Amino acid sequence: MQRLVLARLLQAGLVVLVVGILCFVLVRALPGDPAMRIAAGRYGPDANITEAAEQVRRELGLDQPLLVQLGTSLGQLARLDLGHSVVTGLPITKELRIQLGATLWLSGSALVLSLLLGPPIGLLAGLRRGGWVDNASLGGAIVLRSLPPFVLGLLLILIFAMLLGLFPPAGYGTWRDLALPALTLALGLAAVSSRVARDAVAAVVRTPYLAFARLKGLPEPVVVRRHVLRNAAIPVVSYLALQAIYLIEGVVVVETLFGIPGIGHALVHAVIARDVPMVQGTALAMGLLFVVIAAAVDLTCHWLDPRPKRI
Amino acid sequence: MEPPVSRKFVAIAIAMLAMSGMAAAKPLKVVGPWEIAGIDPAQSGFVFSRMQVAETLVSVDTDGKLTAGLATSWSTSEDGLAWRFRLRDGARFHDDSPVTAAVVADTLRKVQGGAGVFSQVPVAGIEPDGQDVVIRLSKPFAALPAYLVNFTTIILAPSSVGSSGKVERIVGSGPYRVKSLTPPLNMQLEVAPAWAGAKPGVAEVDYQAVGQGETRALMAESGEADLVFSMLPVSVERLKRNPNLDVRIATIPRTRMLKVNAASPLFSDVRVRRAISAALDREGTTRVILRNADLAATQLFPKALAGWNDPELPPLKRDLAAAKALLAEAGWTPGADGILQKDGKPFSFTLLTYASWPELPPIATAIQAQLKQVGIDAKVSVGNSSEIPARHKDGTLEMGLVSRLYSIVPDAIGTLRDDYKAGGSDWGATGWSSDELNALVETMAQTSDPAARAPMQKRAIAILQSELPSIPVTWSELAIVANKRVTGLRVDPLEVNYGLASIRWAQ
C-alpha cells in the first residue's frame, strides 16, 4: 500500500512538470499576438486595445526571448508560486479556490448521483441476464451516452425547469442550482457504469461459488449482499478512475451551459485570452484532481481485494 | 372572557407581516451577459456604474442629454481652457468617508494616465478647489463633460486601493454597495446606508452573469430571474408572447460595419467601396438574422444619436446593377469562373470577424453570399476580436466586420475623433483619412453651441457617406426582459445606468 501512495506521489510530481512546460509551450504556439489577446481579455471587444497591448507587453515582459520566459515560468512553479492572472490580476490560488470549489461540488454531486443510479440498475440487470431490465437498461445507456452533455443538459432544462418548474435553469449558489447540471453529468456516467456493473455481476453469477451459495439454501438477498457485491465492485470501482476523464471533459461544457463559475469555464476563457498562469493553474488543478481520484480508486480497490497482485 | 383581539388573529397578522417583510427582503435577481473579469475600473467599471454602485461626475438621461452625476453643475471659463465641476453636497462613500474634491482630483489624474478614453482629452492639470474640481486643458475641448460619463472615470474611495496600488475593492458612492463579489459570475448588492438620496425600492440585488443567450432566455421564461439584459433576436418573439414578461426594446448607438483597408489595391478606389455597399442586402440580412428590418443601416449613425443622423442624406441601398457598373468602371472584368479580375489577379480577400457578438459570424456569411453575386470572392474567417486591431497595426487587414459602439462617450465626437484621425484606429478607418474631416472634427470638439455644430456635423456625415472608409451594414437593438413582478424599469439606450434604484416590486 505504501508503494501505491508513493507511485501516485511520483505521478503527481510528473504531472506538475509536464503540465507546466506543455501549457507554456502550447499557449505560446497558438497564433496571434499574446499581448493583444490579453488586452482584449481585460478590456473587452469594444475598447481600443493597441496602446493597452503595449502596456501589457511591458508589464508582463512578453518581449523577452521565449526561453527566458519559460525559465521564469518554471522557476515560479518550482517555488510553488502559481502567480497572478494576467487578465484579472487576482492571485491564481484565490481564483482556483473559488473555481475548484464550484467544480468539486459539481463533480462530487454528479459522481454520487451516478453511483446511486448506475450500479444498482446494473446489479438488477446482471442478476437476470437477458431479462427486461437488462435490455431496457442497455437501450437507455446507449441513448444517454450518445447524447452530448450539451444536448442532454438542454433537454433536462426544458423538462425540469421550463415544463415542471422544479429547478432553476442556470446559476450557482444553492443545492437547487446544482441539481440539473449534476444530473446531466450523472446520467452520462451512470449509463456506462451500469453496463460495467451489469457485466461484473453477470460474471460473478456464473461462478461456481455463487452456484454453491444458492445450492446451500441461502436466501437471494443474502447471496447478493455477501458474495456478489464485493466481487462485482472491483471492476466498477476501477472504472471510476476512467470515468473521471468523462467528468473533466463534461464539466467544461456543463459549466458554460449552466453558468457555473468552475474550472472548465475558467480554462476556456483563459485559453482564449492567452492567460498562461491561469491555463497552467487550471490544467494543474484538473491533472492533480485526476491523480487524486486515481489514488483514491487504488486504495479502495486494495481494501476491496487485499490479495497481493500476481505479477 | 374573550381577549379583545383573538390570539389567532394576532398570529395570522404577525405571519403576514413577516411574509411581506420577507418578500420585500427577497433580492432582485438580475441576469446579464457581462462577466466581472477583474475589479479594475478600466476593465469592469461598467458593471459597477450600471448597477449604481459607483458614480461618475456626469451622467446622461434616457434621451442622451448630460445630467448631474457626482457633479451637480459645471461651467467653463471664457477661453474654454478651465472647467469647474461642483460636487454634490453631502455625498459619502460606502465606507462613510466624504467625497471631497481632493479624492476626485486624485482619481481623475490616475485615470488620465491610463489607457481609457479620458486619456484622449488634452488635459493640462486637475486640481481641487474647495468643493469644486478644476480641470485645466491645453486647448478648448467642448466635449469634456461627455468624457466624464464614461465608466473608466468612476470615482472610488481611497480605501478601494490596496497596498499594491491597484484597486482591490469597490467602495463607491452610489445607492447600492457591494455585499459580496464572487468574480467572474456573481455579485450581491445591498442598499448603502451612506446614500443620502431617495431610498431605492429594492433592498437587495443579486447579479448573475450568464454568457449563453439561450440560457438567459430560459431564466427569464422560467421566472427564476426578475430582470434579464441582452436577449438574442431569436428569443425575443417567444418572450413577447409570454404573459408574465415585459419585453422592452431600445435602439442603441452601435453600428455593425465593414472596416475596409483603403490602402489595399483592392479597395483604394472609392468606386469599389461604393459598389460593395450597393451589393449588400441590408434589409434581408437584418430581417432574417436580427429579426427586425428597421435595423438596416442607411448611414453610419443610427437615429438614437441625436444630431448625428441626417434624415435628408440619400440612404445606402441595394442596387446590383449600379454595383456591377461601378466595378466595371474601376477596371474589374468577370473572369471565366465569374469572379472579377484585374491585371490577372482575382478579386479575392479574407473577411475577418469575431464571435464575441454572436450575430457577427452569420452576418459575415450573408455578406459573403451577397458579394459573390457581383463577382467578389470573400473568405470568412472568425477569430478573436484582438486580431482586427492587430492586423490594422501591421497593415495586413483586408476587410473586417466589426461592431462599433458610439456611446463610449455620449457625444459621438469622441469616437469620431479617434476612429478617423490620420493613421486610423483599431475600429475606425484603415489606410484612409480626410484633412477636411479632421479639420471639421477638431473645430467641432471646441464648439459647444449646437447651432454652430449642426452644419459641421452634416458635412462630416456626408463625407463619411460618400467616401465609405467604413461601410455601415446594420444598426443594433438591446432587448431587456422584466418579469411583471417588478415595475419602474427604465431602459437607457446609452447603457450607462440601469436605474436599479427606481425599480419596485409590483403590488
Describe how the helices and strands are arranged:
The complex is a heterodimer of chains A (311) and B (507).
Chain A (H helix, E strand, L loop, with lengths): L1 H28 L4 H10 L6 H11 L5 H13 L13 H36 L4 H15 L2 H15 L11 H31 L2 H9 L3 H39 L4 H10 L3 H29 L7
Chain B lengths: L6 H19 L2 E5 L8 H10 L7 E3 L5 E3 L2 E6 L5 E6 L13 H12 L10 E7 L2 E6 L6 H4 L28 E7 L3 E6 L12 E6 L3 H9 L5 E3 L3 H8 L4 E16 L9 H10 L2 H9 L29 H10 L3 E2 L5 E3 L2 E2 L1 E7 L5 H13 L4 E7 L3 H8 L4 E7 L7 H7 L15 H12 L3 H18 L2 E14 L2 E2 L16 E2 L2
Parallel strand pairs in B: 1-10, 1-11, 16-17, 16-18
Antiparallel strand pairs in B: 2-3, 4-5, 5-7, 6-7, 8-9, 9-10, 11-19, 12-18, 12-19, 13-14, 14-15, 20-21
Name the assembly state: heterodimer
Which structural class best describes the helix and strand composition of chain B? alpha+beta
What does the overall shape of chain B look like?
globular
What Rg of chain A, in angstroms, do the CA atoms define?
A: 24 Å
Largest sheet of chain B: 10 strands, mixed
Number-wise, the strands of chain A total 0
**Average pLDDT across residues of chain A?**
87
Number of E-state strands of chain B: 21
How large is the radius of gyration of chain B?
A: 26 Å
Strand order of the largest sheet of chain B: 8-9-10-1-11-19-12-18-16-17
Keywords for this entry:
heterodimer; A: 311 residues; B: 507 residues; 10-stranded mixed sheet; 4-stranded antiparallel sheet; 21 strands
Outline the structure in words:
- The complex is a heterodimer of chains A (311) and B (507).
- Chain A is mostly helical.
- In chain A, helix 1 (2-29) runs antiparallel to helix 12 and helix 5 packs antiparallel against helix 10 (220-258).
- Chain A is elongated and about 80 Å long.
- Helix content of chain A is 79%, strand content 0%.
- In chain B, the strands form 5 sheets. Chain B has a 10-stranded mixed sheet, sandwiched between helices.
- Chain B is built from 14 helices and 21 strands.
- Chain B is globular, with a radius of gyration of 26 Å.
- Helix content of chain B is 29%, strand content 24%.
- Chain B has helices spanning 7-25, 41-50, 101-112, 144-147, 213-221, 233-240, 270-279, 282-290, 320-329, 360-372, 387-394, 413-419, 435-446, 450-467; strands spanning 28-32, 58-60, 66-68, 71-76, 82-87, 123-129, 132-137, 176-182, 186-191, 204-209, 227-229, 245-260, 333-334, 340-342, 345-346, 348-354, 377-383, 399-405, 470-483, 486-487, 504-505.
- In chain B, helix 7 runs antiparallel to helix 9 (320-329) and helix 13 packs antiparallel against helix 14.
- Classes of the chains: A mainly alpha (311), B alpha+beta (507).
